[in-house]
Amino acid sequence: MPSKLLTKILHNKIQQAYDNADSVSDISHKTVKGTFREGFLVPIIQSLLPPHFGIGSGQVVDKWDRFSPQADIIIYDKRKIPPVIEQNGLGVYFIDSVHRVIEVKSDLDTKGVHQTLNLAWALHPDNINGLKTAKPGKIEGENTNYPFVSCFSYDQSITDLNNALSKWENPGEISNILFCLPKTGLYNYVPDEGEFKKLPSGDGRIEITAVYLAFFLNFLEDEAATRADFSLLEWLIS
What we know:
By secondary structure, this protein is of the alpha/beta class. It is built from seven helices and nine strands.
């Protein structure tokens, strides 16, 4: 049985974020409006994380100087290698520290779906041109968990994620990727079936968002434990 206190507090925070997002809906400049809406979501996520996880925005980079596309919210482990550079929450973050990446959209369209898919493919371990961790991981076979990518959109102009997926020009495979569309539900990409499936997520945008956050941030600590220990030698000398 979930905690009634925590659930009530989280729902109140989410409601406040939506109220704030609705209040800036008349701002015509998409980048300005988008930046505000990203900012409304960050404090909620921060309140659910242990203090050794940080949140930023920018790009992910690997040891071989390969960069990801721009990402709106990046969750990283402060106990690993710190950001290359960071100022006012904007920075460049080493993939060895990054565990979650979120694209935030005011109104999701097909282009926005493709941007999220491209971000996920750039961080996929099977992408030979994608980003790679510097050291072997701690899972059997020296593997590690790569960043989990999701998209959160306040509104949506599309009704069928699988139709948008069929128009994606990149032939690369993607692993689990999560879309939170508060007006319709929570959708997870299932690699074995090659399509998005709707997950049980309750009713109403408050409850759907709460389920999204719980699902997306779950196992964060366990996945952090699969990464290699901090080592500047791997980045600066070897």
